[in-house]
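Bug #77: duplicate submission created two jobs. Keeping one. Sequence:
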Amino acid sequence: MARSKESKIELTAYDDLFETDQSREEAALSKIRDISIAEVDEFPDHPFKVLMDGDMEQLVDSIKRNGIMTPATVRQKEDGRYELISGHRRKKACELAGLETLKCEVKELTRDEAVIVMVESNLQRSTILPSEKAFAYKMRLEAMKRQAGRPTQDNYSPVGNNSEFATSSDELAEKVGESKNQIFRYIRLTELVPEILQMVDERQIAFRPAVEISYLSEEQQYSLLEAMEYNDATPSLAQAIKMKQFNNDGKLSAEVIQSIMQEEKPNQKEKPVFRDERITKLIPKSIPKGQESDFVVKALEFYNRHLQRSKAQER
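Kept job's structure:
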């Protein structure tokens, strides 16, 4: 009699366990739902750009034909709205396709967990701009440090030796497949003024010189922008390092920046004084280098005198 009771108890416990597993599966499935796009907010300071390019057009066409194949990832906020973690391009494509809802998987995540998931999902993209990596690495590293209860560090340096800081950066380096120093270099780009950072994204300024420039103050960087425009040139790594050294010595002024940018670089081709071919083709080959401007000024003076004489004869 006692044995039959024991068997019945074991069977009931097994049924309860089975029902619990089943309910968990149903609960997981219920977290994938269609949510009104109007209720889904962008991730704060999202570092990855949503471009209106050919890939976006293809994604819009695919969604119109087949709908969303992979749900976006969101988390519910305290106010009842949703925060988009993964799927910013899908959300935009749905808007362009005229849809009112977005298929989403709702996850229970803390702020720092959400940051880590957001960065991980977006680093899978085939093309990532330097600025996107820079801010993504910075956000993720700071989130990892907060999770581990480690102090944050604002002055990122490729030679940072803080043991607690190094632990988080080692973990990040292993996860993203880049060296710790390279991660620090990317994070340094977040110190660039927007105009120079855009030039890095557009490959007008090389990566390593940009890292050295990031140590200059905002005012010095804008002085450098003026010097680059005036000289129609971007700094080499050697020039960027020189500016950083002058800055460390407290001697980097706008004049020094201009002087450094005017230095002739190895194997640098001599640039014409005038870039407009309509002007350069009218300057005789016999005019010595460096005197092209004088020739053009004299030609314009002569032309102005001709116009004045012509007006005088018409009176």
